[in-house]
Amino acid sequence: MIFARKNFYFRPVNLVTVGDVKTLSVKTSKKEEFIDITGETHELVDIESGICIVYCPHTTAGLTINEGADPAVAADIIDALRRSVPESEHYRHSEGNSPAHIKASLMGSTLNILVEDGKLQLGTWQSIYFCEFDGPRERRVLVRCFRG
Question: pLDDT tens across 84-129, in order?
Fold first, then answer.
């Protein structure tokens, strides 16, 4: 069914690339850990209004947004993932890091964060976390902002 409204004009959203892809380097020190990258991500915002895409190009690490005020929250999420995806299961992947791949898939690889007044529009308690599941390693996170 098509709905029409008199005097309503559709204005398509235009997303305009502002800068190049920027890279955050993340060095992890544990097999599994969440690293708060909120401040570093915010420093890369180069628009007043639009969207910031944060991308993790790794198959055994991911990204999430969650509470940053209490570090126990990140520890609880890691503990819940360990219980949900145990190391002791029989996995077919021969490298031995299948649990890391599964946990990364559960977290996801991309975040889309709105930007207004040059600031990431995160909630009061929200932080952006890089989620390591196969460390320690040197990793990277890609960030690109679009005006729109």
Answer: 999 988 899 989 899 999 999 999 999 999 999 999 999 999 999 9
Residue 12, in any domain of the structure: no
Q: How many residues does the chain have?
A: 148
Look up tokens 């990140």; give the residue: 74
- For the full predicted model, state whether its pTM sits above 0.85: yes
CATH of the domain at 63: 2.60.120.460
Burial 115-147 (b: 16+ CB within 10 A, else e): beeeebebeeebbbbbbbbbbeeebebebbbbb
Q: In which domain, by residue range, is 129 found?
A: 27-147
User: CA 42 to CA 44: how far, in whole Å?
Assistant: 5
Other Cβ atoms less than 10 A from the Cβ of 71: the count is: 11
**What residues contact residue 113 under an 8 Å CB cut-off, 6+ apart?**
41, 51, 52, 53, 54, 65, 120, 121, 122, 128
- Measured in Å, how far apart are the chain's first and last C-alpha atoms? 29
- The average pLDDT across 26-50 equals 96
